[in-house]
């Protein structure tokens, strides 16, 4: 069996076109959705990510500001900038790019962002809203995985989903989102005794570990949907995920490639959250 490919670029394009329409409708009512991105320091990967975020906003017709600061910026100064953006009516979403320099307490910074502008979905109020089913922003990478799952047309409801990884940004929110979509959810992690045993039961596998070849073909139930959140490098320096794509694609029913699967969805869901935030203000 050869799996059908879940094309993250195609799903992202469709959703971004919807975001552009919603943005145009808001602008016609005098509200331009605005995202503020703060980058502290010179981390090369972060520079690439924030560039993509700002560019995607512009392509969707949104207003975006990128604030860059030296790595020596004090925590107090950063908190002051966040508070100013909280009070700025032209800004509907605030994102502080992580990682932050070591002398700055990232948790404190995230908790200072107004929950109603937390389009990253990292604030404890956003996490709590996801857990309880209250309105709030879902964090972008796992939310993107939900959209990829939905793009297959296979219902999530009633399926057994196995999430591998328990990070605050992906594994844990992923499990809660799948639960919200009425899947039966198992969460596996580094202390799981027999990973293969659990993954073999899965109709849906989400791998978010950060280690290549974590999921191999012998672990996958024929026909399962496999979502690969991993971003690793193989021995040749080529980008690869947590799933052994070449062999798993022969067993799975659906599979995301790396690159071109989950990757394009993170920025896309950031746009969705930002336009949604502006719609709430405009309502
Ligand atoms: N660093 C890597 N990914 C992300 C993300 O999605 N949001 C933020 N704020 N920082 C990141």
Automatic annotation (TrEMBL):
User: What does the record give as the function of this protein?
Assistant: Catalyzes the oxidation of 5,10-methylenetetrahydrofolate to 5,10-methenyltetrahydrofolate and then the hydrolysis of 5,10-methenyltetrahydrofolate to 10-formyltetrahydrofolate.
Name the CDD domains for this protein: NAD_bind_m-THF_DH_Cyclohyd (cd01080)
Catalysis: reaction(s): (6R)-5,10-methenyltetrahydrofolate + H2O = (6R)-10-formyltetrahydrofolate + H(+); (6R)-5,10-methylene-5,6,7,8-tetrahydrofolate + NADP(+) = (6R)-5,10-methenyltetrahydrofolate + NADPH
Question: Molecular function (GO) terms listed?
Answer: methenyltetrahydrofolate cyclohydrolase activity; methylenetetrahydrofolate dehydrogenase (NADP+) activity
List of residues binding NADP(+): 165-167
Q: What cellular component terms from Gene Ontology apply here? A: cytosol
Task: Identify the HAMAP family for this entry.
Answer: THF_DHG_CYH
Tetrahydrofolate dehydrogenase/cyclohydrolase catalytic domain mapped to chain residues: 6-120
User: Might you name a Gene Ontology BP term for this protein?
Assistant: methionine biosynthetic process
Q: Which InterPro entries match?
A: Aminoacid_DH-like_N_sf, NAD(P)-bd_dom_sf, THF_DH/CycHdrlase, THF_DH/CycHdrlase_cat_dom, THF_DH/CycHdrlase_CS, THF_DH/CycHdrlase_NAD-bd_dom
User: In this protein, which residues make up the domain named Tetrahydrofolate dehydrogenase/cyclohydrolase NAD(P)-binding?
Assistant: 139-280
User: Mind telling me which NCBIfam families this protein's record contains?
Assistant: PRK10792.1, PRK14186.1, PRK14189.1
**Quaternary structure and partners:** Homodimer.
Identify the pathway. Answer: One-carbon metabolism; tetrahydrofolate interconversion
Keyword field? Amino-acid biosynthesis, Histidine biosynthesis, Hydrolase, Methionine biosynthesis, Multifunctional enzyme, NADP, One-carbon metabolism, Oxidoreductase, Purine biosynthesis
PANTHER family reported for this sequence: C-1-TETRAHYDROFOLATE SYNTHASE, CYTOPLASMIC (PTHR48099:SF5), C-1-TETRAHYDROFOLATE SYNTHASE, CYTOPLASMIC-RELATED (PTHR48099)
Q: What name does this protein carry?
A: Bifunctional protein FolD
Instruction: Return the EC number.
Output: 1.5.1.5, 3.5.4.9
Taxonomy, superkingdom: Bacteria
């Amino acid at each position: 069996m050869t799996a059908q490919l879940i094309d993250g670029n195609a799903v992202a394009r469709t959703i971004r076109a919807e975001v552009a329409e919603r943005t145009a409708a808001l602008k016609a009512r005098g509200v331009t959705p605005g995202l503020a991105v703060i980058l502290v320091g010179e981390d090369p990967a972060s520079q690439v990510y924030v560039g993509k975020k700002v560019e995607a906003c512009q392509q969707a017709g949104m207003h975006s500001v990128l604030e860059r600061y030296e790595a020596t910026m004090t925590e107090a100064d950063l908190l002051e900038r966040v508070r100013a953006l909280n009070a700025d009516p032209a800004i509907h979403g605030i994102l502080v790019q992580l990682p932050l320099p070591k002398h700055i307490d990232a948790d404190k910074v995230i908790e200072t962002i107004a929950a109603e502008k937390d389009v990253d979905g990292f604030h404890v109020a956003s996490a709590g809203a996801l857990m309880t089913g209250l309105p709030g922003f879902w964090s972008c990478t796992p939310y993107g995985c939900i959209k990829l799952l939905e793009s297959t047309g296979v219902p999530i409801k009633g399926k057994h989903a196995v999430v591998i990884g328990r990070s605050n940004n992906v594994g844990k929110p992923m499990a809660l989102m799948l639960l919200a979509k009425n899947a039966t959810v198992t969460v596996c992690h580094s202390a799981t005794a027999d990973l293969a045993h659990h993954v073999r039961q899965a109709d849906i596998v989400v791998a978010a570990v950060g280690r290549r070849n974590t999921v191999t073909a012998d672990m996958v139930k024929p026909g399962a949907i496999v979502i690969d959140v991993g971003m690793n490098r193989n021995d040749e320096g080529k980008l690869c995920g947590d799933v052994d794509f070449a062999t798993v694609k022969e067993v799975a029913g659906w599979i995301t490639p790396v690159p071109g699967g989950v990757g394009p969805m993170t920025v896309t869901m950031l746009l969705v959250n930002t336009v949604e935030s502006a719609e709430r203000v405009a309502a």
